[in-house]
Amino acid sequence: MAVNGIPRTASVEDRRTLAEFLREQCGLTGTHLGCEHGVCGACTVLLDGGAVRSCLLFAAQLQDAEVTTIEGLSAEDGSLSPVQQAFADHHGLQCGFCTPGFVVSVTAFLSSNPAPTDGEIAHALSGNLCRCTGYQGIIAAVKAVAGR
Amino acid sequence: MKPAPFQLHIPSTLEEAVGLLSQHGEEAKVLAGGQSLVPLMALRLARYEHLVDVNRIAALQGIAREGGWLTIGAMTRQTTAEAHRDVALVPLLHQALPLIGHFQIRNRGTVGGSTAHADPASELPAVALALDAEMVIHGPAGGRVVPAREFFVSTWTTGLKPDEILTAVRYPVWPGHCGFALEEFARRSGDFAIAGVACGLEVDQDGDVARAAIAYFGMAPTAVRASAAEAALVGSPARGADLAEIARLAASNTDPGDDIHGSAGFRRRVAAHLTERALERALRESIHA
């Protein structure tokens, strides 16, 4: 498996999820585990370019896959991606637990729909739960990246 | 690690997969997209000794038009089907796909997986049932085809034997003057529907209803057809049909559960409204088709 462009080889127990593999065997703890059954969206990563729940995949299924985590979205010098910067600028986070999942989901959403309507934004965000912000800052961040 | 221990098998051919299922019987389960099965395993509502991952079997992928049918390979991802031009030929499927979970779920979830999982509140079993779709199944003795009406047995239970795999779903493309509408009510986008209905109508040259299909989801232990209401519609003039009365009849013949999301009575009232709205939409479309 390639994680953020780096080939990774490891032996894993069959039931080890992709999320656990990333956190515990790759040391990439930016991918957060909330509900661990596909509801909260905190563990969202890109699998071959598409946003997926990493708690619902087993690492052993993904031998030739390319995975991008939140760590892979910022530039090598650590500067923030446009989506990350917009979340910071528009108070799109408070405690930050859900933020990696939101940033990954929004990155995938805006790459497939760069000029979304308000309704499309609300719909696209519905797969990620945030218990702090009330979502208004997150929506403002998405609109900012979309140039609105 | 939330699921109980299991052994993961990753066959590359259908024969190999069926062989593994035959070998392990009731202790094995097919793993498709995993968007319903893995949560059940994480919550320990389901537990298997063996998972047979069919994601690498190329023969289970793809969408094909054959005569009056649209055949969708069981492992076709829901997002792939959503974006495919030919899926518009089956309007109920086209309307249902974007309502499944969230886009992150549909990127991994499959058409066959959701159908074979047979959750009573999910959209695809009701669409297959409404359209009289055919289930293409492969097992140790070869292939067989089962009509949707015989496939859905109960909650999470189908006519698949432990050593069989659903390989494709064949949806009929209705000819003539047809209209279709799918309506559902959920408190948040992406939630399981509290009540939902898939309707298809065909109107003949005299303006009479020639064919009617009404299928509910979330209203019984499995997707169900409202046969009495369908029979009341067929043969009657499309314009002037008392759709509110038909919808009430349809929703009254269901067996929804009582839970924290809604009582059985509430679900029936919601279902009657959704049915009337769906029938209106389908009728308008079929008259103008």
CATH class of the largest domain in chain B: Alpha Beta
CATH architecture label of the largest domain in chain A: Roll
Strand order within the widest beta sheet of chain B = 4-5-10-6-7
Taking the alpha carbons of the first and last residues of chain B, their distance comes to 53 Å
- Biggest pleated-sheet summary of chain A: 5 strands, mixed
Average the pLDDT over all residues of chain B and give the rounded result: 96
Q: Could you describe the 3D structure shown?
A:
The complex is a heterodimer of chains A (148) and B (289). By secondary structure, chain A is of the alpha+beta class. Chain A has two domains: 2-72, Beta-grasp domain (Ubiquitin-like (UB roll), Roll), CATH 3.10.20.30; 82-145, DNA polymerase, domain 1, CATH 1.10.150. Chain A has five helices and five strands. Chain A has helices at residues 18-25, 82-89, 99-112, 118-125, 136-145, and strands at residues 2-3, 6-7, 44-47, 50-53, 66-68. In chain A, strands 2-1-5-3-4 form a five-stranded mixed sheet, with helices on one face. In chain A, strand 1 and strand 2 (6-7) form a beta hairpin. In chain A, helix 2 (82-89) crosses helix 5 (136-145). Chain B has 289 residues and is of the alpha+beta class. Chain B folds into three domains: 7-53, Uridine Diphospho-n-acetylenolpyruvylglucosamine Reductase, domain 2 (2-Layer Sandwich); 61-172, Uridine Diphospho-n-acetylenolpyruvylglucosamine Reductase, domain 3; 177-288, CO dehydrogenase flavoprotein, C-terminal domain (Enolase-like, domain 1, 2-Layer Sandwich). Chain B contains eleven helices and 14 strands. Chain B has helices spanning 14-24, 37-42, 78-83, 91-96, 103-106, 111-117, 123-131, 148-151, 227-233, 243-252, 264-288; strands at residues 7-9, 28-31, 50-53, 63-66, 69-73, 134-139, 142-147, 152-154, 157-158, 165-172, 177-185, 195-203, 209-217, 224-225. Chain B is globular and about 60 Å long. Chains A and B meet through strand 4, helix 3 and helix 4 of A and helix 2 and helix 5 of B.
